[in-house]
Write a sequence for this structure.
C-alpha cells in the first residue's frame, strides 16, 4: 500500500475527504499521482503537515491567491500572492505547511525523486533527481498548465477508460520536470561578510511578522546572536538594503496593492501598512517608483479606461 502525499493522505492535510486523484506508475513501478483539491471558502488558514518523504509536489494553481505563505521545517521560505495559472514546487523533504487565505482550486502532482532519477538522462546521477527551483516561487509554464487542463475532465470520468492517457501524461510530466528543471540541489553561495542564511531568514521573518508596528535592529541582532553593527552590515551585504529599507520596501508592496482601489485614501493606506503618515508614504513611494502616488494612480486609471 502507498501512503505518499496524494489522494486521501494529501486531502487530510487540507481538511478534505476523498479528493479526486489520478494515479500511474513509471516503467520501474514508481508511483506517480495528481490530486485535485478545492476549498470553496476564504480564510482557511494553515494546512496540516503534508508528511516528510523523498518527493516533490508540483502545484498548478487554477485560482489565484492574494495571500500565500509556505513554511519549510517551521520557517517561512516564501510569502506573497500568486496568479491563476501559476506553478510552484514543494519539497516534501522539508516538512512543508502552507497558509491559504482565499478559495483554492489546485492540482498537486506527486513526483518522487526516484521517478525523476529514472526519467533523467543519467539514471545513476543522484543530483539529477533534484528540481532546481526556489522554494515556493511561482512561475509560468505552458507545458505543466496544458497537462493539468488535459487531466481536469478525467477526474470526473467513470472507470479506467482514460488510464492509458493518464499514464502517458504523468510519465511525460515527470520526464519534462527532470529535463527542464532538474539539477543538483546546492546551497546558495554565501556572500562574504553577509549574514548566515538562517540569520537572514530569521531577520526577514521577524520583520514580516511585525511589518505594521516595526521591530528594532537590537531585537533582530539578539535573535541572530550577533551585534547590532554586524546585523546591519551583514544584512545590507546580503540584500543590498539595510533592515529599515527592506522593511519599507515590504510596506510599499502592501501599499501598492491597496492603491489599486481608487476609493482608498492615501492617508488611510499609509496608516494601514505601517507608514507614519501620508507624507512618509509619498516620500518613500516617489523615491522607489520615480513618480508620486497621485501620478501612479492616475496612470493606473488611464490604463483601466483604455482596456475597457
Amino acid at each position: 500500500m502507498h501512503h505518499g502525499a496524494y489522494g486521501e493522505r494529501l486531502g487530510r492535510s487540507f481538511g478534505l475527504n476523498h479528493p479526486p486523484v489520478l494515479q500511474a506508475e513509471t516503467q520501474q513501478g514508481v508511483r506517480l499521482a495528481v490530486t485535485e483539491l478545492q476549498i470553496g471558502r476564504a480564510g482557511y488558514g494553515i494546512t496540516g503537515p503534508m508528511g516528510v518523504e523523498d518527493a516533490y509536489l508540483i502545484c498548478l494553481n487554477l485560482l489565484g491567491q492574494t495571500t500565500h505563505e509556505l513554511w519549510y521545517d517551521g520557517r517561512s521560505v516564501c510569502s506573497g500572492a500568486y496568479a491563476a495559472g501559476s506553478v510552484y514546487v514543494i519539497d516534501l523533504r522539508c516538512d512543508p505547511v502552507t497558509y491559504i487565505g482565499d478559495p483554492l482550486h489546485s492540482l498537486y502532482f506527486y513526483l518522487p525523486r526516484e521517478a525523476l532519477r529514472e526519467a533523467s538522462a543519467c539514471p545513476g546521477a543522484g543530483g539529477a533527481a533534484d528540481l532546481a527551483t526556489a522554494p515556493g516561487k511561482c512561475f509560468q509554464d505552458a507545458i505543466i498548465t496544458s497537462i493539468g487542463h488535459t487531466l481536469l475532465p478525467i477526474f470526473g470520468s467513470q472507470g479506467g477508460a482514460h488510464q492509458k492517457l493518464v499514464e502517458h501524461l504523468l510519465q511525460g510530466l515527470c520526464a519534462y520536470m527532470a529535463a527542464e528543471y532538474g539539477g543538483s540541489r546546492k546551497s546558495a553561495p554565501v556572500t562574504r561578510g553577509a549574514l548566515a542564511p538562517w540569520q537572514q531568514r530569521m531577520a526577514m521573518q521577524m520583520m514580516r511578522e511585525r511589518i505594521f508596528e516595526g521591530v528594532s535592529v537590537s531585537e533582530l541582532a539578539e535573535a541572530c546572536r550577533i551585534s547590532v553593527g554586524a546585523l546591519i552590515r551583514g544584512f545590507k551585504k546580503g540584500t543590498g538594503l539595510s533592515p529599515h529599507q527592506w522593511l519599507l520596501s515590504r510596506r510599499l508592496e502592501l501599499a501598492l496593492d491597496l492603491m489599486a482601489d481608487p476609493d482608498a485614501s492615501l492617508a488611510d493606506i499609509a496608516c494601514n501598512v505601517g507608514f507614519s503618515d501620508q507624507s512618509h508614504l509619498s516620500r518613500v513611494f516617489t523615491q522607489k517608483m520615480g513618480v508620486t502616488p497621485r501620478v501612479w494612480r492616475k496612470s493606473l486609471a488611464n490604463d483601466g479606461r483604455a482596456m475597457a
In short: The two ends are 55 Å apart (CA to CA). Residues 197-307 form a domain with the Arc Repressor Mutant, subunit A fold (CATH 1.10.10.60).
